[in-house]
User: Fold this.
Amino acid sequence: MQGSGAGDAGSGEKSLRGAEELSAADAREEPRRPARALTIAGSDSGGGAGIQADLKAFARCGVYGMSAVTAVTAQNTLGVSAVHLVPGEVIVAQVRAVVEDIGVDAVKVGMLGGAEGARAVARALEELPAGVPVVVDPVMVAESGASLLDEQARRLLVAEILPRATVVTPNLPEARALAGGTHGAGDRAEVHALARAVLALGAQAVVLTGGHRDEACDVFLAAERPAEAIEIPGERHPDGAAHGSGCTHSSVLAARLALGATPLDAARTARELAGEAVAHGLRAIGAGAGPVDVLDLGRPTARLP
Assistant:
């Protein structure tokens, strides 16, 4: 019996050493790489929209965010006071630098700035590895109704960028502009017709967002089922803050695609998280329209000593 006990002890020591060796081997394994998403868009110095909003949305989804800046804006909650457009070759160089070293699992495209920026973005998208999903947020019309994209840049957006899009995410004014400047009642019939018109421009799917409609309902339409419009309902939050909501929506959608979600599932998550970001919006930030809060920064937390 004593010999048996000694044998058991020796066996236990070997098992322990084996477990320790396995743990050491596990520690030597390559660390897990997070999904990676790249935003190609303008910078908002106020932090509410543009690449700043995009990077926050990526982080909210657990995705590593990268950026290629197309324009630098002097901006706060009251408006934009100056814009500097980044040269096209610098836009392309930013994308190349990121893709060559870090890699990319999804891309979101926002503000193009002008025709040179649109050409550069189209070239950068053409150089992406095959199969990388691209979400295009067609930033074309300001809240005031003013055009944010000249006619040449708009033509390039339609001809060179939208056909490369996995999903395009216009709001109602942008969908009208893409469809040829038509105006309607904003009802269900018009929205579904606009979704079909935008889809016909070449993207694989369109999400026409509901933020500018009486009914806060997104409409999803895919090229594989062009007759099947899917409505994604959501709540309206009149007491929230919405600056950056479009950027947040499209970036969450891109992040979910980077994580392997289908476009429809990604669109549903984007609607949910963008709605929450508006509801939690930071109305105490600035004297104008407050920014969305996708990270829930307004939640009461214990202060550091």
